[in-house]
Amino acid sequence: MVSGIAEAPPAGLGKLLMESRFAVPNHQRDYSWTEQVKQLFDDIDSAIEANDPTYFLGLMVFMGSESGELIVLDGQQRLATGVIFISAVRSWLSQYSQHQKDASQIQDWFIGRSELGETALQPRLIMNSANNQAFSDYIVKAVPIEHIRAALATLKRQDRNRNLLEAALYCRERVAQLASTTGNPDETAKKLIKIVVYLRDSANAARLIVSSEAAAFTIFETLNDRGLELSPLDLVKNYLFGKAEAHSKPRIRDMESRWTQMMAMLANVKADNFLKAFWTSRHGRIQNPLLFGALKRQYSTPDSVLQLSMDLLVASEQYAAFESADDPVWAPHTKETREYIRSLKVLSSQQIHPVMLAALSKFSTHEVERLLRLLEVLIVRYQLIGGGRTGVLEISLAKLAKAVFDGKAGDSVVASASDAFREIKDIYPNDDDFQTAFRAKQERSNPKAQYLLRCLEMEERRLALPGMSQEEELGTLTVEHILPKSPGANWEQVVNADDALIEDCLFKIGNLTLLTKVNKDLGTASFDEKKAVYGKSSIIITNQLAKQSSWDRQAIDHRQARMAMLAVSAWRFQ
């Protein structure tokens, strides 16, 4: 037995809630279960139906606290989901006078109750600072289901409470569905209480109570070694806090605060991808299974993990900023830099993130702008148009990221975007190869097609109208298929003359153009009808279509060949 760890007998989830109060530390992840909620209660329903005496929920790890609550180090998703479902049962039972006593007992036993002489409700489970208010307002308290729906409707897709409220709504609807199948409140109550009793007595968890997060880390590391894999970020968190015990409590609290801030920064991105990008930006390429071990070796002292926690916080803010050109991180940078961020967001290549992190810590704002342009051109030439292998791209950009962070690659200095260009010259497609690949390109993604067409239009304007204002002149655009997806009778002659025309050419760049939203309903109109609209457009690549006498494979290929020539100068790093 590892020192500082005490085993406790397995107990039902409900019994755990009855016997103790629990608190999720602020540095823990937010509530994140989605489809797992349904899976859990499907499994429990099946166990009850099969008369299984127990359903095993797995290991939960807790740590004692001075306030008497058990700090949840592992198990918050299962505990919280249990409370969410039990609260849905309570809310349903409380509708009926004959079942209000049961509802009240469920509230006191499993959800929360007031101490003698007090009115404030003491919840059985306190969530982290991001989730706790919503948990209190919509789960601990009994509120109508309409309140949950209304609150959910106000949340953005990536809001930190969205999964929590979706789970609450799902459990309410699941209980309502069960009620609708029985058609009898008393029969429904029996079934619901049977589930709650099963959660109390038979949905068992193995418990470990540890004296410190360092002891918990030993457990988590052992579990990982035995194949019960935790995410790299979970392991790093527990490693950091285990090492931090060599410091004073104020320094530990500072580290906890930084971790909480970091997780808030990463709320709208894939946090584990961030950790790999951070490592790669400083130390080079690594595979996910090896990441935690390498990090432990690199940051092995209390002082180094303290510095790591500070570096991670700074990098998390930068990494989150990759999602939005309007993020405050980009305030000191140029307008062009922000435009490159918008473009790179559309191109959505994870492989560039380590290079971007390294550059933000080492390059001037001018060189960051030029590097982002280089990355945009590379991703378009090599990946989007050229279809190059992702693995080769990842290896090359990982080497580049480390070179940027180190300021050198071998004997060569890497202190500018031009230096970076030299380092990736081997995978940068030349003009001839790029033009050839562009002539054959099809694009089914609407955002990427719009991006390509916008850039071609900007290049056309640069060449034809040097003094013309740039992208703001375009306004809000939509992608138009010249040959429509479902051509009607007015396209019959063209389609019948070429059986494979739609299959071969519908998504070719040459068959796509830009329209303002005012003209977006051209749909299946004939080419002559469309030309009348195209000829009035201020968009050059669209206006040019009015000169075409017909629209067939030859016309599409000819237009795309011209676009390919334009693309060579539109995506070139100079």
Structure write-up:
The chain is built from 26 helices and 12 strands. The protein is of the alpha/beta class and 574 residues long. It folds into 3 domains: 5-210, no CATH class; 213-432, no CATH class; 443-570, no CATH class. The model has no long low-confidence stretch (mean pLDDT 89). The strands form 4 sheets. Strands 1-8-3-4-2-7 form a 6-stranded mixed β-sheet.
Topology:
Elements: E1 5-12, H1 13-19, E2 22-23, H2 35-49, E3 55-63, E4 70-74, H3 76-93, H4 100-111, E5 112-114, E6 121-123, E7 125-126, H5 132-140, H6 145-153, H7 162-182, H8 185-201, E8 203-210, H9 213-225, H10 232-243, H11 249-265, H12 271-283, H13 288-298, H14 302-321, H15 335-347, H16 353-362, H17 365-385, H18 390-406, E9 408-409, E10 412-413, H19 417-423, H20 431-439, H21 446-464, E11 477-481, H22 492-496, H23 501-505, E12 512-516, H24 527-534, H25 540-543, H26 553-570
Parallel strand pairs: 2-4, 2-7, 3-8
Antiparallel strand pairs: 1-8, 3-4, 5-6, 9-10, 11-12
Helix pairs in contact: 1-4, 1-8, 3-4, 3-7, 3-8, 6-7, 7-8, 9-10, 10-13, 11-14, 12-16, 12-18, 15-17, 16-18, 17-19, 20-26, 21-26
Please give the count of helices: 26
Could you tell me the radius of gyration in angstroms? Answer: 30 Å
* Major sheet strand order: 1-8-3-4-2-7
Q: How far is the N terminus from the C terminus?
A: 63 Å
Supply the helix-strand structural class.
alpha/beta
Overall geometric form:
globular
Helix percent band: 55-70%
- What's the count of strands? 12
Question: Kindly state the mean pLDDT as a whole number?
Answer: 89
Largest sheet, strands/sense/barrel: 6 strands, mixed
- Poorly predicted runs of 5 or more residues: none
Q: β content, as a range?
A: 5-15%
Please tell me the total number of domains. Answer: 3
